[in-house]
């Protein structure tokens, strides 16, 4: 037996909501440099950035992180962390914390199990809801992660997270904070479906066939499978989303224009730029997040039961 035992009562929606956001923030703290490396690899090759980054070439995950530390300082892999944590507290709380509730809502009354279609629908719904609420935090996070500050001449465009929100709204309008919402909704609906549905099904089958009990090994395997599936299906949309959200005004007319220019200038392999850090990040992130999430749900339910207990 590894970790806390499952509580006698199922976790409440509030417990799932709080637990998901907290677990996602913890996972982000541990994997954020991988996410930053992914963003740098994804935008590498854009013509407008070629001159700025001519002296900086990224090769591989570790090479990208080491290059950033050498040229921009040891804190550079964590550029945008504050916005990233703000994003996860609102984003993950909705897409993960509300998944079971939405799945139950879509499941016909009297049915014992939810079909794959219902699970996909629930994952897509909570993923889209989360993006709608948390898009500004994602835009700011990507801008910080993509920005380069080389040497003494590397002036920062933003003087902090709140300044970034204000600057983007002032220079690009409030709609600038929702830039790339459509590709981000597409990307996160896909990611959420892949993550939540895969995790749900793998965990269910491991327990159903009694291969594992409802504890750490089961959660680890389910989360790792979810991370791999999510990376494979979402990487092309993720690259387009990153490029479009980080683009200067007028660079791309639309996400579709961004996609077509990528194919014309860099070939179809551009859709899988940064795949390795994406997988390392999503795989590690899913393992840390889901394992932490499962334990937090149990811990929070124990606290709630103790508070309600008369003795």
How many strands, what sense, and barrel or not for the largest sheet? Answer: none
Q: Give the tally of β-strands.
A: 0
What is the count of DSSP helices, taking H or I runs of 4+ residues? 11
Instruction: Output the structural class.
Output: mainly alpha
What is the CA-based Rg, rounded?
A: 20 Å
State the share of residues found in helices, binned by percent: over 70%
Gap between N and C termini: 28 Å
Q: Give the overall pLDDT as a whole number.
A: 87
As residue ranges, the low-confidence spans are none
Beta-strand content estimate:
under 5%
In one word, what is the shape? Answer: globular
Helix and strand run: HHHHHHHHHHH
Describe, in short, the structure shown:
With 311 residues, the chain is an all-alpha fold. The chain has helices at residues 13-43, 47-50, 61-72, 81-95, 99-106, 116-146, 161-172, 181-208, 216-246, 255-266, 275-308.
């Amino acid at each position: 037996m590894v970790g806390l035992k499952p509580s006698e009562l199922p976790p409440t929606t509030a417990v799932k909501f709080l637990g998901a956001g907290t677990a996602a923030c913890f996972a982000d703290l541990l994997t954020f440099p991988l996410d930053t490396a992914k963003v740098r690899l994804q935008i590498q090759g854009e013509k407008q950035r070629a001159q700025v980054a001519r002296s900086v070439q990224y090769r591989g995950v570790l090479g990208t992180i080491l290059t950033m530390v050498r040229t921009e300082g040891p804190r550079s892999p964590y550029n945008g962390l504050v916005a990233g944590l703000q994003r996860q507290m609102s984003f993950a709380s909705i897409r993960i914390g509300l998944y079971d509730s939405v799945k139950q809502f879509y499941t016909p009354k009297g049915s014992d199990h939810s079909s794959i279609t219902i699970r996909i629908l629930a994952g897509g719904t909570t993923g889209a809801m989360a993006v709608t609420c948390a898009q500004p935090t994602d835009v700011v996070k990507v801008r910080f992660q993509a920005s380069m500050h080389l040497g003494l001449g590397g002036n920062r465009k933003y003087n902090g997270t709140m300044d970034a929100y204000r600057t983007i709204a002032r220079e690009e309008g409030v709609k600038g904070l929702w830039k790339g919402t459509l590709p981000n909704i597409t990307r996160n609906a896909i990611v959420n479906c892949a993550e939540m549905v895969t995790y749900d099904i793998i965990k269910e089958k491991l327990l159903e066939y009694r291969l594992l009990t409802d504890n750490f090994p089961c959660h680890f395997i389910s989360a790792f499978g979810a991370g791999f599936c999510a990376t494979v299906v979402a990487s092309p949309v993720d690259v387009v989303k990153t490029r479009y959200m980080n683009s200067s005004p007028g660079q791309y007319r639309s996400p579709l224009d961004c996609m077509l220019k990528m194919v014309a200038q860099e070939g179809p392999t551009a859709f899988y730029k940064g795949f390795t850090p994406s997988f390392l990040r999503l795989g590690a992130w899913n393992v840390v997040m889901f394992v932490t999430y499962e334990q937090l749900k149990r811990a929070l339910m124990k606290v709630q039961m103790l508070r309600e207990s008369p003795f």
